[in-house]
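Lecture notes, unit on protein representations.

Consider one protein chain, 299 amino acids long.
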Amino acid sequence: MPPDAQHFVRLREARRLYSLVGECLAVGGDGVAWRWRLTKAIRRLLGAELAFFADYKRVGSPESPEGWLRPISLLDDWGGVEHRPTFWEHFVRDRHERLPYSRLAEACETFCVALRSDVIDDRSWYGSAHFIEHSVPMGLDDCLISYSRGPGDTVQSLFLQRAIGAPTFPRSSAELVRGLWGELRQFQPVQLSSVEGSAFMDLPKRMLQVLACLLTGYTAKETAELIGVSTHTVQEHVRRLYKRSKTTNRAELAARYRTIAPVLVNTSLEQLPDVSELINKATQPPWPHEPGRRTLDPP
């Protein structure tokens, strides 16, 4: 294949992309539903092992040592599920801005799309702490990175990563994602709604505890005893969770948050304070950081 051929988008891929946008619009009133549909479909379309769609809020400047992107929501889809718990552990533990490709978000005025090789050369990538300590244990290698600046202080990211041993992403994949952002930006936030109401990372601490207990299978009475509040208080938190997530019963509530909050599923009572603290550290300033430490540095 001529080198320039990888730049061209195949007609069937372009058609599938625009079909996908239509599918997202069909459920656009539900911020979780359209993001979830998009994430699953784009992973398959571009042959990735991992795809995630994240929403952030700007809470400072890129120069701030305490970080400047606050995670609000992340939806992820995998070719296999064995590495998903590790991924979520890393996500709630490590600051996004410390990743080697997040510099794109700093310079992004509308939206930007890049292949990994556009941002980091092979020698730096394969010798970096991020690749060795994060990607290798999860069987991941080459990635495609994209960011979009939304209304107000919002930033979105669509990130795809291929399995170790798979071919690198061709330039045509970046062109497809560029076209995708061009479409998505036209319809947000009116026809494609925001996710903030359902985002578990944006839940108050006590509501997060109630949700974790419900996902683990505790009743309202058991939850009240476990976290030291009244049953009425638990029921009020559940009612607010229904409203946030646009669900009407506990089965729907559990189904939605098992999808978007896997880190909370099967969390024991002993683990709950640690998990809650991890999520709090991942989503609330000030964030821990290692002065002078960059994820491109050798481990």
